[in-house]
Structures are given as C-alpha cells and as structure tokens.
Design a protein that fits this description.
The complex is a heterodimer of chains A (296) and B (238). In chain A, helix 1 (2-32) runs antiparallel to helix 11, helix 2 crosses helix 9 and helix 7 (163-173) packs across helix 9. By secondary structure, chain A is mainly alpha-helical. Chain A has helices spanning 2-32, 39-55, 60-83, 91-112, 124-127, 139-161, 163-173, 175-180, 185-211, 220-233, 238-258, 267-281; strands at 118-119, 129-132, 135-138, 213-214. Chain A is built from twelve helices and four strands, in the order ααααβαββααααβααα. Chain A is globular and about 60 Å long. The longest helix of chain A has 31 residues, at 2-32. Helix content of chain B is 37%, strand content 26%. Chain B is built from ten helices and ten strands. Chain B has helices at residues 41-48, 71-76, 94-101, 108-122, 124-127, 139-151, 169-184, 196-202, 220-225, 229-233; strands at 3-12, 15-25, 30-35, 56-61, 64-65, 79-82, 157-161, 188-193, 205-210, 213-219. The chains are: A mainly alpha (296), B alpha/beta (238).
Chain lengths: 296, 238
C-alpha cells in the first residue's frame, strides 16, 4: 500500500515538471504557432547559471533566484534574435530555426564549457526523507509538487485575469485581429516567451535537483517528453499540456514500478506505444481542441 | 481630407490585387466602397490598416503618412477596422472583447470603464451578454460586438468590412441605422459593402471597384440613380 502511495507521489512530482515544461511549449505554440525545440536548452541555461553562481561561492537560494530571471531573459533573447526574423514565414521555417537554435546552443555549451556533466549539489534539506501520516516520502518530491501547484495557479490567474493574459488568449485565437485592438505584436510575443522562459527555468531547477548535474544535452530528453505531453494532452489547449504531462509521468512511473526488471529495456517503447494508442483513439489528444488554438 | 489614399497597389505573390486605388475621405463623411467579390475591397481596407503590405502608393491619415505602419500603431493614430466576418474572440467573454478594444488607451482601465458605458448605451443588447463567451452570440449580436469593440479605441475613422454579411434583413436594417447614428456622433466611416442600395442611401459618396481599380465614383444619390451600376460592376443580375 505505502509503496503505491510513494509511486503516486513520484508520479505527481515528475508529472508536475513535465507539465511546467509542456506548458512553456504550448503557450508559445498557441500564440506564435511555433514548436520551440530549443525550449529544453533554456533548461540547460538555467543549469549552467546555477553551476557558475555556486562555483563562485554564492548560496543556492541566490543561485535559484538569479537563474530563473536569466532563463527568462534567454527565452526573450532567443525570440528577438532567432524567431522574430522568421516570424512571418511558415511553419517549417520556424520549426527548423528552433532546431538550429538548439543545435547551436548545445555545441556552444560543449565547446565553451565542457562536454562532461558538471555537478550541482542538491541541498541536503531537499534530499531528506520525511514521514507524512506514517508514509515516507522524499522532501524533494513534496517540494516539487508544491512548486508546480503554485506555478499552475499563478499562471492560470495571469492568463485569465491580467490584460496581457487576455491579449495572449485573443492572439491565440486570431493574431491579426488582436493587433487591430492596439496590442503590439512584439509585446505580446515577448511576454509569451518570457512566460515560457519562467516555466522552463522553474522546471529546470526541479529537474536538476533530481539529478544533481548539468550537461550540454540536458534539455533534449525533457523537451521531447514535454512535446509528447503536449501532443497527447491536446495541442493548442493549455490544460491539455498539464493533463498530458501528468499522464505521461503516470505511465512512466507505473511502468518503472510494475514492469518486471528484464523488461526494463522496453520501458520507453511501451510508454510510447501507450501514447500512440491514446492518439489512435483520440487523434486530437486527451483534451483535443481540434484545429482551433485556444488558451484555456 | 482625414484619410487620403493615392495609387495604392497590393500584390499577392505574382497576382496584383489592387492596381492603383485612390480615394479620399473627408471628416464626418460616410464613404461606401462597392464592388463584386474579388474586386479588391477587403484588400484595400487591409492595406490601409497595415494588415497586409502595400506594394506601392501613399496613405495619409490627418495629413500624416501611415503607409508601412503596423495596425497596432495605426489604431493609436485614431483609425481602426471592424474586419469581415466579425472575427470576435469567441473564447473570450463579451466584456473581455470590449476591454481589449481599449488596449491602447491610457489609463487603460479607467478609459475602458467610461467608454464601455458609452458603447453599451449604443448596443444595449450586449449589456445582458457581458459574461457570456462571444462565440455563443448570434451572428447579429457578434456583428454588434465587433463594432462595439472597435469603438472602444475611440477612433476618428472607422472602416467597416461587410458588416451586413450573412445577417437577417431586419438586423441588416439595424446595422445600417447604427452606422448612420455613428456618423451623427462625429465618426468618419469607410464602409465596404455588397448591399449596394442600402449603402448608397446612407453614404455621402461612393467608389466602385472592379478588378482592383476604381471604375466609378460619385455622390451616393447620383450613383443610386445611374442605371446599370449594379449590373455592370457589381456582378448582379439587374
């Protein structure tokens, strides 16, 4: 019994991180119509910022508080430098641009920093095991679930209540009419990328706390997972990204826990097979909006 | 002239949609822009508004050139467009649609609150629908919302792209009454329509477009009496 609750906590914790990442991808997709495969490399930027600040002898709290704004800035710079020049081209051009940005960043990390992983020590306060109602769970998992909840509530309030959130919802539906309202295209896109950077930064801190290291390719696996989460949840719907993130994590944790050890090599294959089955039954994803893009 | 367009050309790839359109709109006028499907009416409005790039020509608002400016800047200069097919934000509430209309105004919320009251007096029907998603409104209600949303930016010049399209006859009458009422409130209106008779009745002057050029222009009442205008240029059997 206890072990299943622990698996549940792990699934929620991992799912939360996937959900935050997937949301970052989904927001940019909804407003700009771009699948940003360099989103994972924003996580790597968070990681190296943490690493260098810690190496300079500053505390972890300061490192986290500085790394997230750096990631936001990196996301906005990415848009300004790479995506704005190709904004009015087409879907494949922007997609290829995002692959190019990702490749350039990964090579830059390898050559300018190191191809080998760098250690970022997770604070001992987070590696403790605590007992809640007689059940042992990791402090890190609890923290990560808490952070995810706070982020989801804050993001939802921003999108539903703030005037920029409103402009983003409008832009997701009809970008040119949103400009007719006097909403500057550059501003609404900058805000969108800033939000995606915030989400990537927070997800990165949670991800790195789990693995205690950063390497040049750190972002590639999570961005793929996030992309799968977005698609399985329903492209063009933010709640779909969240549901998809938790769904993917639940499948992965269930397979890790329930699959015989000799099947371990097939874990990802089975997880992806389940994802494909979902898409066969529901081609628009779990909460699919069809072809319409809507921020909800 | 509050709005003056000279020799406007627009290309979609190799296809030329506008072949040098010139038109003038004076303060307080209603100008009708008529023509058959594909004559270039919507392209003219979209190019004036900066939604599509013009390949040539000059556009001036209040004597200042606005050619090449993005729509969000032109809105700030006092001109806006209610696009064809209404295009309200269907997932947003009526209230949110209106609020976005005042996005460029400062102080935003105070301005929006005051303007909203003014606009709701003109469109009392919308008041009952404020919290509803705009997508749930009927076609006529959506058209009223689309116009109301444009008015939220307090424009001096309002361009309307086929506001009567797809609406029931009584609602069309109501929309034309509203346009006349807006002019009485001091608004200058450039109206694109396929509904020739009703447009010519309220318009001071009209331009008729065919194949991307102005083929006829004059006072609304005169054009109304010119026999064959509809048959010749508007693609209708008279």
């Amino acid at each position: 019994m206890d072990i299943w609750i622990q698996h549940g906590v792990n699934a929620l914790s991992l799912g939360g991180t996937y959900a935050l990442l997937a949301l970052g991808l989904a927001i940019v997709w909804s407003v700009v119509g771009l699948v940003n495969f360099a989103h994972g490399d924003l996580m790597t930027i968070t990681g190296y910022t943490l690493y260098f600040i810690l190496a300079a002898g500053l505390g972890i709290e300061f490192a986290v508080l500085a790394a997230i704004p750096v990631t936001i800035l990196a996301a906005m710079t990415m848009e300004r430098v790479a995506f704005r020049p190709v904004r009015n081209t087409n879907y494949s051009t922007t997609l290829l641009t995002s692959f190019a940005v990702s490749a350039i960043l990964q090579v830059a990390f390898q050559n300018l920093i190191s191809a080998r992983p760098q250690t970022i020590v997770t604070p001992s306060a987070l590696t403790r095991i605590v007992e809640i109602a007689g059940i042992q769970v990791g402090m890190l998992q609890i923290t990560s679930i808490g952070v995810t909840i706070v982020m989801l509530i804050a993001l939802s309030l921003f999108i539903r209540k703030s005037v920029y959130g409103m402009a983003m919802r409008a832009a997701a539906e009809n970008f040119s009419v949103t400009r007719l309202m006097g909403v500057r295209a550059n501003s609404v896109i900058a805000v969108t990328f800033a939000l995606s950077g915030l989400l990537a930064g927070v997800a990165a801190v949670l991800w790195i706390a789990q693995r205690s290291s950063v390497d040049p390719l750190m972002g590639s696996v999570p961005v793929l997972k996030a992309f799968i989460a977005v698609v399985v949840g329903g492209l063009g719907r933010l709640s779909g990204a969240v549901v998809g993130g938790f769904f993917l994590a639940a499948v992965e944790i269930a397979l890790r826990a329930g699959l015989p050890i000799e099947w371990a090599d097939y874990r990802d294959a089975i997880a992806l097979f389940i994802v494909i089955m979902v898409l066969v039954v529901r081609p628009d994803g779990l909460l699919g909006a069809g072809r319409q893009t809507v921020i909800r | 002239m509050i709005l003056s367009v000279k020799n406007l050309t627009v290309h979609y790839g190799p296809i030329q949609a506008l072949r040098g359109v010139s038109l003038d709109v004076a303060q307080g006028e209603i100008i009708a822009l008529l023509g058959a499907n594909g004559a270039g009416k919507t392209s003219t409005l979209n190019a004036i508004m900066g939604l599509i790039p013009a390949s040539g020509g000059e556009i001036a608002l209040n004597g200042e050139t606005i050619g090449g400016l993005p729509p969000e800047t032109i809105v700030r200069r006092g001109m806006t467009l209610t696009p064809e097919g209404r295009q309200v934000f269907s997932d947003l509430t009526v209230e949110e649609n209106l609020l976005l209309g005042a996005f460029s105004k400062r102080p935003r919320s105070a301005f929006a609150a005051a303007k909203r009251e003014e606009v709701l007096t003109l469109f009392p029907l919308l008041r009952e629908r404020l919290t509803q998603a705009a997508g749930t409104l009927s076609g006529g209600e959506q058209q009223q919302l689309a116009i109301a949303r444009s008015l939220m930016s307090d424009p001096a010049v309002l361009m309307l792209d086929e506001p009567s399209l797809g609406l029931a006859p009584q609602i069309v009458d109501r929309i034309f009454e509203l346009i006349a009422e807006l002019r009485q409130r001091g608004l200058t209106i450039l109206l694109v329509e396929q509904n020739v008779e009703q447009s010519l009745e309220i318009a001071d002057r009209a331009y008729v477009l065919a194949n991307g050029s102005v083929v006829l222009s004059g006072r609304g009442a005169d054009l109304l009496q010119t026999t064959g205008v509809e048959r010749t240029y508007l693609g209708r059997r008279g």
